[in-house]
Amino acid sequence: MGAGIANVTIDKGLSTVLIDNSQQGLERGRNQICTHLSQQQKRKKIGLLEKERILSRLVSSTDIAALKRADVVIEAVFEDLPLKHKVIQQIEQHVGKHTVIASNTSALPIKEIAKASARPDKVIGMHYFSPVEKMQLLEIIVHDGTSKETLATAAQLGLKQGKFVVVVKDCPGFFVVRSLAPMMSEVFRLLLEGVSPEEVDKLTKNFGFPVGAATLADEVGLDVAEHVAQFLGKALGPRVAGGSPQLLSELVSQGNKGKKTGKGIFSYGDGKKGSKKVNEDAVKLLARHKLVPPTNCSSTEDRQLRLVSRFVNEALLCLEEGVLATPSDGDIASVFGIGFPPFWGGPFRFVDLYGADKLVGHMNKFADAYAREQFAPCQLLLDHAKSGKKFYKN
Ligand SMILES: NC(=O)c1ccc[n+]([C@@H]2O[C@H](COP(=O)([O-])OP(=O)(O)OC[C@H]3O[C@@H](n4cnc5c(N)ncnc54)[C@H](O)[C@@H]3O)[C@@H](O)[C@H]2O)c1
């Protein structure tokens, strides 16, 4: 992620320092940037001179002191709170008093991250999406102590990087990952019920998602997914349950971390078209943890709605709780962050178009077949179902 963030910064004319504590990690990052720019050159999007000009803005180092003149530092180390604390304190030893320190955490509350800082008003969340070069969203997260100047600096940088910026309040998972977590849990339940990864991809793509949900899990990284599932499982409780964190742990402990390790739910061979196959390790583990599905929730439409309703319900809860300021913030974040089917317009527009009452009917059927906490419609959805009220006037 760090390399992707650096990449969308140097190509907008900003000098950037890429730091990693391992030479290997640093080279991996630099190679990722060089490969991306070479592809751009091959496709004639940039010339050789421009490529060299962009690369000349990048300094890479294993010495954190190289950050000393930075106005903004974005940390993207492993998703581990004590490590993030350590890194923030190291950064603060070298940067100026004005420097904004942003965390690209997927789910850890910014308030918790800011506890290690000597100037929490300068700490903010800047949550990018993978691959950073392609995904247009930047979710900015403010904690109660973040200053207005810090927010303005972070938003200005995001806009310069060419991102759609949505500002949300601090909570575990923020908006996008929090809404995605119950849906990903349902993806794993479908796999455990014997729906093949190809079929999971097909039914989500047919619904309108640009990337199939099983492939999305591999793109995000099964280690990241495991961490988020466990963390949000604790923070949000049974609403996130349904899949199997145990299955994810076993997959990850065998080295199946997703695309980055060449195998996750799928194995990626040499990366050429047609080399992607279902990973045999995943097949064995799925068979070992197999679940028997109820008969009345397994049509293609049921499976699609089981996934989508869990995303939509959590998104509405975020509006209900004030994590989101408006329905359109949630719709923009969902379409540009995880590719919620654009023709549905996002979860809020989906409720308006599909019908809140119809959706509540399906969710109640799923709640009876599985667990009520996983599918119980939130109050806002129930209110819209009862009153016929819409999120948008037209
Ligand atoms: N992968 C995603 O799709 C995604 C999306 C959004 C946010 N994130 C978040 O971004 C962060 C990084 O995730 P990732 O998938 O890029 O992980 P990654 O394992 O690919 O990269 C982490 C890098 O941090 C380096 N590192 C570790 N400790 C360090 C230290 N003390 N100083 C400097 N560098 C150090 C490692 O060498 C490694 O290169 C996590 O917080 C994750 O939750 C990931």
Automatic annotation (TrEMBL):
GO biological process: one example: fatty acid beta-oxidation
Annotated localization: Mitochondrion matrix
InterPro entries attached to this UniProt entry: 3-OHacyl-CoA_DH_NAD-bd, 3HC_DH_C, 6-PGluconate_DH-like_C_sf, FA_oxidation_alpha_subunit, NAD(P)-bd_dom_sf
Location, primary (coarse class): mitochondrion
GO MF terms, alphabetically ordered: enoyl-CoA hydratase activity; long-chain (3S)-3-hydroxyacyl-CoA dehydrogenase (NAD+) activity; NAD+ binding
Catalysed transformations (reactions): a (3S)-3-hydroxyacyl-CoA + NAD(+) = a 3-oxoacyl-CoA + NADH + H(+)
Pathway: Lipid metabolism; fatty acid beta-oxidation
Record-annotated 3-hydroxyacyl-CoA dehydrogenase NAD binding domain positions: 1-171
Gene Ontology CC terms, in alphabetical order: mitochondrial fatty acid beta-oxidation multienzyme complex
Domain 3-hydroxyacyl-CoA dehydrogenase C-terminal: 173-268, 306-390
The organism of origin for this protein: Diploscapter pachys
Gene3D superfamilies recorded: 1.10.1040.50, NAD(P)-binding Rossmann-like Domain
Subunit structure and binding partners: Homodimer.
UniProt protein name: Enoyl-CoA hydratase
